[in-house]
Amino acid sequence: MSVLQDLLEALRSRRVEVVDLTAPLHPGTPILQLPEPFANTIPLRLEEISRYDDRGPAWYWNDIHTGEHTGTHFDAPVHWVTGRDGEDISQVPAERLVAPAVVLDFAAESAKDPDFLLEISHVRAWEAEHGPLPDGGWLLYRTGWDARSEDAAQFLNADENGPHTPGISAECARWLAEETPILGVGVETVGTDAGGAHSFDPPFPCHSFLLGAGKYGLTQLQNLARLPATGAVVITGPLPIVGGSGSPARVLALVEGE
Ligand SMILES: O=C(O)C(=O)c1ccccc1S
Ligand SMILES: [Mn+2]
């Protein structure tokens, strides 16, 4: 049998399982809230065109209104000023949309401290146990934040000082971007940067360094708890919006069955 026939047979027999890493996208899906004076994106809105009625007797369809960075989405390099000469979302090579992925689980630490930051030492300790980060693969950062994703207040977790959500230190973001072979970073939170990243140096370092290095971001992922630390294959499906900075995306993982 061909390798693709083997894959289909493995999927049929559930020796390979498909795990959906995508948050359901609806008008209540939490979105990033930047402080004044910055502009913000919009939530999803469906605008009905017809629904089996005199506007369209046999069909139901909508116009959709959404931001590029609404819900589970893919950040392209051009999204950040440091990546302004890089790929837009339509230029991300298709072969990079299927890639290996590893999961770094810091859910316990994030539950204790919502401002927890991943440091280089944490990644090196993970590598000592599981092997090197994947060349051309995703570093998926599990924080347990997906459990909050249907409650915007819990998910954004903001107080008078701003949002408190786990992320990556500036030093670690620069090291991941410039000294490791990963394709990008995927997170469960509303964006790849920590809630307090507006006050980091540089501000929003994950965006600044990773997108500036031509790498990518994936946000608002779910079900990372169902993935092994190593061995998953992640398939990402951003819309190829010409000139776009990112796109809502369906993100799937292939994992070896139990
Ligand atoms: O890329 C995003 O969705 C995101 O998190 C973001 C977007 C725009 C400005 C700052 C941030 S931090
Ligand atoms: Mn984004």
> How would you characterize the largest beta sheet?
7 strands, mixed, barrel
Strand content: 25-35%
Radius of gyration: 19 Å
Return the string of H and E elements. HEEEEEHEHEHEEEHEHEEE
Structural class: alpha/beta
Give the distance, in angstroms, between the N- and C-terminal Cα atoms.
23 Å
CATH first level: which class?
Alpha Beta
Task: Please tell me the CATH architecture by its name.
Answer: 3-Layer(bba) Sandwich
The number of distinct helices, counting runs of at least 4 residues, comes to 6
| Uncertain spans | none
Mean pLDDT: 98
Helix content: 10-25%
Write out the distinct hetero groups bound to the structure.
oxo(2-sulfanylphenyl)acetic acid, manganese (II) ion
GO molecular function: arylformamidase activity
Protein name: Cyclase family protein
InterPro entries: KFase/CYL, KFase_sf
Provide structural commentary.
This is Cyclase family protein. GO terms for molecular function: arylformamidase activity. One of its GO terms (biological process) is L-tryptophan catabolic process to kynurenine. It comes from Pseudonocardia bannensis. InterPro entries: KFase/CYL (IPR007325), KFase_sf (IPR037175). This protein is an alpha/beta fold and 258 residues long. The protein has one domain: Glucose Oxidase, domain 1 (3-Layer(bba) Sandwich). 19% of the residues lie in helices and 29% in strands. It contains six helices and 14 strands. The strands form four sheets. Strands 4-12-11-7-5-13-14 form a seven-stranded mixed β-barrel. A two-stranded antiparallel sheet has the order 2-3. β13 and β14 form a beta hairpin. The radius of gyration is 19 Å and the shape is globular. Bound molecules: oxo(2-sulfanylphenyl)acetic acid and manganese (II) ion.
